[in-house]
Amino acid sequence: MEQETTVQKQQQTWYPALYKPEQRERLKQWWLWLQSEQARGARARLRRCQTPGEVIMQKGFFKLGSLLPDWQTYHLLALATVAGILAHIETETDVTFPAQLGAENSASGKPVLSELRFRKLLASADPDEFYKSLLRAVKQAGKSAAPVLLADSILHWYRELSEPEKYQGKKSWKYRWANDYYSSKVFN
Known about the structure:
The chain has one domain (18-187): Orthogonal Bundle (Peroxidase, domain 1), CATH 1.10.520.40. It is built from 12 helices and 2 strands, in the order αααααααβαααβαα. The chain has helices at 6-12, 21-35, 40-48, 52-55, 59-67, 69-74, 76-86, 97-102, 115-122, 127-140, 147-162, 173-182; strands at 91-92, 144-145.
């Protein structure tokens, strides 16, 4: 049986927020730009931000906003959270972020992010709390993630926050993250 390529996996992935392929491509190009030497200052300024409100005042945020204008008008804090969190991602993976968090830490044999911290992240009720919990999780995961998948999850969280009736059951952000986290090897 052949291994699935990253492209094939992404084609099978449900993107509740970044459902247009061109949005995903623009976001990926922005993240790649952010990794470049020419974006070093913008990246550093984004990394110093402690809240989405601080991110909104940064050049890197406006560059992302120009690439995703629908999201800039829809929800500034959502896009700011994406910009601020992705600025901390240094290594790209092809695994969902919650699956990474639930994966076994080779040193301890426990999940990368403890169940308690994971539940706290799931229980985040406001943008600042969500940002801080997510930032801690990114650091625990070694600053690696699939940038497009993580961005989509962040945008999904904001959509669910503003329209909870549309995201029930298996369409819920919490369900998707808990399913990926608890489906990892540590819990099986």
